[in-house]
Write a structure and sequence with these properties.
The complex is a heterodimer of chains A (316) and B (455). Chain A is an all-alpha fold. Chain A contains 14 helices and no strands. Chain A has one domain. In chain B, 6% of the residues lie in helices and 44% in strands. The chains are: A mainly alpha (316), B mainly beta (455). At the A-B interface, helix 14 of A face helix 1 of B.
Chain lengths: 316, 455
């Protein structure tokens, strides 16, 4: 097909629209996440989490998996918060489980999924599978006896050789003596600093996702097929490509429910919030590249397994 | 990457390998679910009307032929298939028999659009309801839709509109009724209600327009109706009628003819649903419109009403007025849509003084009609004859009553009718049933009109 100026103009409009929609949708949630990160930094002391979290890796991962109920953040906001929790001493297994589960196992996403699909198997399976996959991935990461090998220096706990702070050079305000106003000011300073730091990855991820959506239209992906195996691959690819915020993705998935298999719709709802283009870019600001690959591939294989098993063995 | 690989990396690779193996195993184990059925109509041990339909709702889009080839009834019944989204409907060619327990079977192997085969055969039983008769009552007071068992029994009121019902129509499957209700703006709205009189809902709010004479398509997926626009000023008469159609599920409505100059009233669907007949008062003609091709046939008549479709939907018996003989006389003719020809059946020389639009029996072998012979006074009696006018014989011989409103039941074994005593002041129309097997007439309702079978 020949390239025309009109076609290029249309593609540019699509690219801009998609990028802006991703960025505008995600930015407030990133801001919430960085605010939560600032609150954790200022109001929790180093080692608080290591005392609160069970020592057993699986139990720690399980706790991390349900931590989203207390920190309702989507996949954009969860990254800086998870990094902050790790720096504060949360075990890596719990942090990984939190990172992957919180975008789904939180009150806002539970409510939006309930609104879209009602109180039925999709809602329960989404919650259950997200928790299971997140906890399992977290448990796998618990086998790394030296977690700092998987983290970038800025993400490592201070005691494990991490930087003492994230670019914020205000006087230490987390000391109990500091007045509340000063501590809140420090929360905001950390949040702003972190917002711009993680925002770079969000912008880069948004640009990449917009570029991919411009080059690979949704219709082309959906046209690949809706069979029990292919449909799972198609909707996982679409979830990654669309990079939709987990707070609204249930309504997008609802549109596929009539023509795609239950397993594929679930895969879309489970894997999309864990891994998409923009969150992958944000992972790269926290983890070593090898760990990012594991964070992408392990949930992918588990989601595939679950989606295929449901499609081929479960009638609902 | 930070440094070389360690035991953790090997462990992750092992986990990944295990997951890949598990995925491969799940795929190789094959499909244990296949194409699935979400619901059946009627549900197991349920009941349907004489005309069905029987339905299977699949959970996914299907390859139509593979599902149709596997669906059958026992005892065997011929019929036609139609799809509505994910649901396959089977429409029996002949009415199902009341009292018989039918078994519907869907053999395994029906393929979804992605090639998944249904794994298990499905079978469910159902029975056929005994028919009821729906009618309007009372004639002298507030009008509501009622129903009464065709075999006799206490009548039941279906609608509760403060007596504002104008007219009604029973859906072919007998599951619901459409009826028009006069509103506060002196227009008429269209409503739907189920066969038990439950869940009334407004289908169309017509404001000051008169939306009346609803007519169900044979598949029950469309309603045609007459719409007379409000007058140009309050109290002014309504404008001329035009025929519209409406989707009974969504309420989406549109004029049948885009040309607003085409008038129409009293729509009647052909039994195959391909054609729609309306009476165009502007042209003094019946318009027979092929909905698929938009081909049209105009049949001139001065009687102001549509005729009766043959069961195959290709012909129509209609009445006309012969003004050329000594005195005006009603005639009967047959319009053949395929041949675009009109054939006289009973002319002014037939010896009959007057007759009404006939009712074609379901098998197409007979027509029932109300006749006034030269020696029967002012009343019309029910007669039976061949569609060509042959083998005519009277069904009633009661000169005190005039008969009308006759309709065959789905099996062609009985006629419901209304009769009216002419010589008695303030007489009310009565409803009865003529049994073809015994020739007996059973009166059912003492004050009712416009009866319709409710299968």
């Amino acid at each position: 097909m020949p390239i025309t100026w009109a076609g290029l103009g249309e593609s540019l409009v699509t690219f801009t629209t998609v990028f802006l929609s991703i960025f505008i949708e995600a930015a407030p949630f990133l801001m919430l996440g960085t605010l939560a990160s600032g609150l954790v930094e200022v109001f929790f002391n180093q080692g608080d989490f290591s005392r609160l979290v069970p020592r057993h890796p699986l139990a720690a991962a399980l706790l991390g998996g349900v931590l989203g109920l207390a920190f309702p953040v989507c996949e954009c906001g969860v990254v800086p918060l998870a990094r902050r929790l790790v720096r504060k001493g949360l075990p890596l297994s719990a942090a990984i489980a939190f990172l992957l589960a919180a975008p789904v196992v939180n009150p806002i996403v539970i409510a939006s999924t309930l609104a879209a699909f009602g109180p039925g198997p999709i809602l329960y399976s989404r919650l259950g599978l997200s928790l299971l996959i997140a906890v399992a991935t977290g448990a796998v990461f618990a086998f790394q006896s030296r977690p700092e090998r998987l983290l970038l220096p800025a993400s490592r706990p201070v005691m494990a050789g991490g930087a003492p702070d994230l670019h914020v050079h205000l006087p230490a305000a987390s000391a109990p003596a500091a007045p509340l106003g000063r501590r809140l000011l420090r929360v905001l300073a950390i949040a702003v600093d972190e917002f711009f730091e993680m925002g770079r990855y969000l912008v880069a991820g948004g640009l990449l996702a917009a570029g991919m959506q411009t080059v690979v239209p949704q219709a082309a992906l959906l046209g690949l097929g809706s069979g029990p195996v292919v449909s799972v691959l198609v909707l996982i690819a679409l979830a990654v490509l669309l990079s939709i915020c987990s707070t609204v993705d249930a309504f997008i998935a609802l549109a596929f429910a009539a023509s795609f298999t239950p397993g594929s719709v679930l895969a879309f709802l489970v894997y999309g919030p864990m891994v998409d283009i923009k969150s992958t870019l944000m992972f790269l600001g926290v983890f070593q590249r090898r760990a990012v690959v594991y964070l992408i591939v392990l949930p992918l294989l588990m989601t595939l397994l679950a989606g295929l098993f449901i499609n081929l063995n479960v009638a609902w | 990457m930070a440094g070389r690989f360690d035991r953790f990396d090997y462990f992750v690779w092992a986990v990944m390998g295990g997951l890949v193996l598990a995925i491969t195993g799940v795929v190789l184990a094959g499909d244990h679910v296949g194409a699935r059925v979400a619901a059946t109509f009627p549900p197991a041990a349920g009941a349907v009307g004489a005309l069905g339909p029987i339905g299977v709702e699949f959970a996914q889009p299907m390859q139509a032929g593979t599902a149709e080839a596997r669906l059958a009834l026992e005892p065997a019944v011929a019929g036609q298939f139609a799809w509505d989204g994910l649901t396959l409907w089977f429409y029996p060619a002949q009415a199902l028999t009341p009292g018989v327990t039918y078994t519907a079977r869907l053999e395994a192997g029906a393929l979804s659009r992605e090639g998944r085969a249904s794994q298990r055969p499905l079978a469910w039983t159902f029975t056929v309801r005994a028919p009821w008769i729906a009618y309007l009552a009372s004639v002298s007071g507030p009008r509501e839709v009622w129903r009464v068992p065709a075999a006799g029994g206490p009548p039941e009121q279906l609608t509760h509109t403060d007596g504002r019902v104008y007219d009604f129509a029973v859906a072919p499957d007998g599951e619901r009724l459409a009826y028009s209700v006069v509103n506060d703006q002196q227009g008429a709205d269209l409503w739907l209600i189920d066969r038990e009189g439950r869940a009334p809902r407004q289908l169309l709010a017509c404001g000051a327009d008169l939306c009346t004479v609803p007519a169900w398509s044979p598949r029950g997926d469309r309603l045609a109706y007459s719409r007379e626009p409000a007058g140009i000023a309050p109290g002014a008469p309504n404008g001329p009628p035009r025929v519209w159609t409406v989707d009974p599920d969504t309420g989406q409505t549109a004029a049948l003819y885009q040309n607003s100059q085409v008038l129409g009233y009293g729509p009647v669907w052909s039994p195959d649903g391909r054609r729609l007949a309306v009476f165009d008062g502007g042209e003094s003609s019946i318009r027979l419109l092929d909905l698929a091709t938009s081909q049209e046939m105009l049949v001139k008549t001065l009687m102001g009403a549509v005729g009766a479709w043959s069961p195959d939907g290709r012909r129509m018996l209609f009445t006309d007025m012969d003004l050329e003989s000594g005195q005006p006389q009603v005639t009967l003719a047959l319009a053949d849509f395929d041949a675009q020809a009109i054939t006289p059946v009973l002319g002014a020389d037939s010896g009959w003084a007057d007759f009404s639009v006939p009712a074609w029996s379901p098998d197409g072998q007979w027509v029932a009609l109300a006749l006034r012979s030269a020696d029967s006074g002012a009343t019309k009696q029910l007669w039976l004859m061949r569609p060509d006018g042959g083998e005519a014989r009277p069904l009633t011989r009661d000169p005190l009553y005039t008969f009308g409103g006759y309709r065959w039941n789905p099996w062609g074994t009985a006629l419901v009718f209304q009769r009216f005593e002419l010589n008695t002041p303030f007489a009310k129309p009565e409803l009865g049933v003529w049994d073809a097997a015994t020739g007996q007439v059973t009166m059912l309702v003492a004050d009712g009109s416009t009866p319709e079978w409710l299968p």
